Amino acid sequence: MNRNDEFTEWMKELEESVPEVDASIKRGCRRKLRKQLLYQPLMSLAALFAVFVLAVNLCAPVAKACANIPFLKELTKAVAFSKSLRTALENDYIQEVNLSQTKDGVTVEITSMMVDHRKLTVFYRVESEQYDRLQINCIVPDDWENGRSYGANISNFYNWNAGESAGEIQYAAIDFFTEEQPPESLPFHMTVWNDDAYLEDVQAGVVQKGDDAMGWDEQACKYAIAEFEFTLEPDWTKIPEEKEYKVNQEIELDGQKFTIRNIEVYPTYMDVNIEAAEENTAFPTYLHFYAENEKGELFRDGCVGGCNSGRLTREFSVRAESSYFYEGKIARLVITGAEWLEQGKERAYINLNTGETKNLPENDTLKGIRKEGETVYLDFEQKYMMRMDEETGDPFGKTFAICPPVLYYDAEDKIYIGEIRWDWDWDENGNLLGESGEYEWTLKEYPYEEVWLENFYSSSWQADKEISVKIK
Amino acid sequence: MKKEEFTYRVEAIRGQLYKTAMLYLGSHAQAVDALDEAIYKGLCGYKKLRKQEFFTTWMTRILINECNNELRRRKRTCPLEELPETAVEEFDSLPLKEALQKLPKELKDVVVLRYFSGFTLAETAELLKIPQGTAATRQRKALQVLRLELGEEEAYEQK
After folding, report:
1. What is the dihedral of CA A254, B30, A236, A262, to 10 degrees?
2. Which partner for A405 in A340, A349, A416, A454 could form a disulfide, CB atoms 3.0-4.6 Å apart?
3. Is B69 in the same domain as B96?
4. Which residues, 6+ apart, have CB-to-CB distance to B51 below 8 Å?
């Protein structure tokens, strides 16, 4: 066969194997909705978060004095919640910025940035004499005209209150889900909303507090006071090389097999890169683990900022606090549990007439179904889960709950966004009280008998004994 | 553009997008992943696309960016071996599929878009942000190295 014949054969082969894109489009729609909802400010959550941060701030150790960092005290307070950022700051890992804009009675000042591999942390402060309560949200708009997305997920939401948080430094953590180096010059847009106007509407019943059904764009337009457009110029050349630990070890977790490929440690976060075996029947939507260095210092899972791009893929990364500025090398990884999404249990089924359920998440129980006209209310109870408390070493020391999913489907596979209200009690340190909490799903104007809720997890697993991977 | 129109337009070019991803990445699973990612990003951005007549090149550019991301990631974990364009004998000894994967990236980009994905020379140059003359030179070199004798007819057949 000559080259041209090979070409023709290959083209035929490619034509025959073209996959249907329907599934890609549906997956895309679901992901987009999930992302919108995840990053859309949920008022009640934001308030809880504010309490939690305050509590941590009060008991966090004070960073060492360092005269050459402006606003050090304020920055230290802002990052008290994050071990990685706090340590990076203590090691002068910060770039100064001096950007300020005033519009319609609101001043926004960007004071500094932490520039890391595919991660940028932007510190800013907001001041206003005109308003009592504001909400601030930041985005990195994509360059869609050139088909270019920065893949930026921003973790930020700031409730500004003239009495409490005026002038306090806050930060937005931006994760770039792209292998490409983010550009030298980056747009950074901030929208400031009038929270008083929003609350007035809540009181008047125009919107409901925590109304998920109200879209991001709608909220931004309705309550926006001012929009600020900054151009950030992070110096990506000053980022030090990552520390890499090759692992290549196979582990079995609750019957699922994985290979831990390597650990990449960056100044403000750590990534553990993992490959799932093809025969696995469940994907870990959350992996509970910590890394320990030679000196016994622990770096726990999770991070401040978006931790994943919302894709369930065979090769994936889980993120932890960074050990970069600590002397000891990483000696081991300890896995303590996981939330699994099992194949075939991606959606829970509920018959709204009979109450029959299938594939509900393991810790969730349907307690009741109420109908008011065409609107259906589903009452659930979620038994809290336990996880290791890395601070105290107690293997089952902390209680946690999983936020319920927000998407549901009808028999035609049409996607809807649910409204959820949850009733969880927290103490002042952000710990859940009691053994279980309740949440209520609202299916607005849903006339059908059957519904399918998207599961964020289907079962939870806690390791009986420590699963430890030694790092050589 | 409405979502229904986006869906309709993506459906119309799905074969072209899949082939492009497949040829860039050489793996069905990774091509579908890149396609998924590109469609997701397309869904996020289609309302902001001002010149809708460029929908195909716009979607292809998103897809190419995704493929390049994957290739960069792969380069970090298991680098691909590229052969220099002067390695005539090595290229001759390989089947076309493998030879294409081993082409220097700038040659492979042109030949994939031009002959496998069916873009014109001008569109290929625009997609890769290179002058048309450069695209033509790279196209000629790539065909020479692969010993392919493809003309305008083959290129347009793919449309």
Report:
1. 30
2. A454
3. no
4. none
